[in-house]
């Protein structure tokens, strides 16, 4: 008989009842150190007092009015995001994949209104992930995601991940945009080199193509900059954000320049819940903390400490790990042993990590992880790796 929850996930038999910072407490009392943070969502850890206050204060007053009316919390968050980024304008969604939907529509409408309705093609890359909506799976295009789901949204051109020549050859009269994650998350924590992002920007400028960045996983302080593309010193035309921006409350956004957004006039897009007062109140509280340069400097310091300890860990477990990759607190341990074995061994030592493609173990801890928690995390990873070695 089918379970009462549609069985699309293989879940670990863990029941968490409470969260505190980087810790999740199981029903039976065990305390798990959470290096997954709800897949890079709980950017400030669990039950951060500023977020709890923002949410509960808002909940006392007003939950929802719809976008038929002005929403001050939405305005405040849009102002914070535009002030802190390249963007001139923001549309709020409830998830990353909804942000992907709008990014695609926005790029196509831009060219349509410019008198180039043929420029509907969007170039995407192998190993990418843009969510599970019809546009999201069509954009990523991997067999695992699209097989069995019938005719896909047309207009995506899938290229190998790191092949500048294939990219040049793929650009035609119908190319409207390039869509890329500055650091692939699901694909196995694969950062795009700064030099390549710069090249993409120049190529887009030269050929008149929109650059869309998917920063759903790598944005909001995760790499040690507010947005990952800042490391390369470039700006996109359109950017998708979600996960960390809500700190655990469902919230996403599309950020864009005035030019790229010029086709999106009244009536061209909408969302019932997008930009609701609850989500935006929490988003404002997240931005107030994460956009602070001192906070980001400390994320970078702690990320450096974690990385150093992980390099030593990898060196002492060559049968389990072969390398560390990623940026900031978006790190991947490339495994030699099956990555799921390490995830499972982690559960036995009360440590939560997340698998990714390419046999990578993802570490996406709360950005607030302390020095002591970093030491504890590496001790537990060491114990998990030893258990995996013993079972080999
Ligand atoms: C998680 C993710 C998405 C999809 O976000 P949802 O909120 O699950 O719809 C899109 N792009 C990237 C890079 C992601 O990591």
Describe the structure.
38% of the residues lie in helices and 19% in strands. The protein has 392 residues and is of the alpha/beta class. It folds into 2 domains: 16-34 and 294-391, Aspartate Aminotransferase, domain 1, CATH 3.90.1150.10; 49-290, Type I PLP-dependent aspartate aminotransferase-like (Major domain) (Aspartate Aminotransferase, domain 2), CATH 3.40.640. The chain has a 7-stranded mixed sheet with strand order 4-12-11-10-7-5-6, with helices on both faces. Strands 1-2-3-15 form a 4-stranded mixed sheet. Strand 1 and strand 2 form a beta hairpin. The longest helix has 24 residues, at 293-316. The radius of gyration is 21 Å and the shape is globular. Bound molecules: pyridoxal-5'-phosphate. Residues 95-97, 129-131, 181, 185-186, 214, 216-217, 242-243 line the site of pyridoxal-5'-phosphate. The modification N6-(pyridoxal phosphate)lysine is found at residue 243. InterPro entries: AcOrn/SuccOrn_fam, Aminotrans_3, Aminotrans_3_PPA_site, Class-III_PLP-dep_AT, PyrdxlP-dep_Trfase, PyrdxlP-dep_Trfase_major, PyrdxlP-dep_Trfase_small. Belongs to the class-III pyridoxal-phosphate-dependent aminotransferase family. ArgD subfamily.
């Amino acid at each position: 008989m089918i379970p009462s929850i549609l069985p699309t996930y293989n879940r670990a038999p863990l029941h968490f009842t409470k969260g505190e910072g980087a810790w999740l407490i199981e029903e039976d009392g065990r305390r798990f150190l959470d290096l997954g943070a709800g897949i890079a969502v709980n950017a400030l850890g669990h039950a951060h007092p500023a977020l709890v206050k923002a949410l509960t204060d808002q909940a006392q007053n007003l939950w929802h009015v719809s976008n038929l009316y002005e929403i001050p919390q939405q305005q405040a968050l849009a102002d914070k995001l535009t002030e802190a980024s390249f963007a001139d304008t923001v549309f709020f969604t409830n998830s990353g994949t909804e942000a992907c939907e709008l990014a695609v529509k926005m790029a196509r409408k831009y060219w349509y209104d410019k008198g180039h309705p043929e420029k509907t093609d969007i170039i995407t890359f192998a190993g990418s992930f843009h969510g599970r909506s019809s546009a999201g799976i069509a954009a990523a295009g991997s067999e695992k995601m699209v097989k069995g789901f019938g005719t896909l949204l047309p207009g995506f051109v899938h290229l190998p991940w790191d092949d500048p020549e294939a990219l040049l050859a793929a650009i035609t009269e119908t190319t409207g945009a390039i869509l890329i994650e500055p650091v692939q998350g699901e694909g196995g924590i694969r950062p795009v080199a700064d030099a390549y992002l710069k090249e993409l920007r120049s190529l887009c400028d030269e050929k008149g193509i929109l650059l869309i960045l998917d920063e759903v996983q790598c944005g909001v302080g995760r790499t040690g900059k507010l947005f990952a593309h800042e490391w390369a010193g470039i700006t996109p035309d359109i950017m998708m954000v979600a996960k960390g921006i809500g700190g655990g409350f469902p919230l996403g956004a599309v950020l864009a320049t005035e030019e790229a957004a010029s086709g999106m006039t009244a009536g061209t897009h909408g969302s019932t819940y997008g930009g609701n007062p609850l989500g935006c109140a929490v988003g404002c509280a997240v931005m107030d903390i994460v956009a602070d340069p001192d906070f980001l400097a400390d994320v970078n310091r702690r990320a450096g400490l974690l990385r150093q300890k992980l390099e030593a860990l990898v060196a002492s477990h060559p049968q389990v790990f072969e390398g560390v990759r990623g940026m900031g607190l978006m790190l991947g341990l490339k495994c030699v042993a099956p990555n799921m074995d390490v995830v499972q061994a982690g559960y036995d030592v009360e440590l939560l990590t997340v698998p990714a493609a390419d046999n990578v173990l993802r570490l996406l801890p709360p950005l607030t992880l302390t020095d002591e928690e970093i030491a504890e995390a590496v001790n537990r990873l060491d114990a998990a790796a030893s258990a995996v070695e013993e079972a080999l």
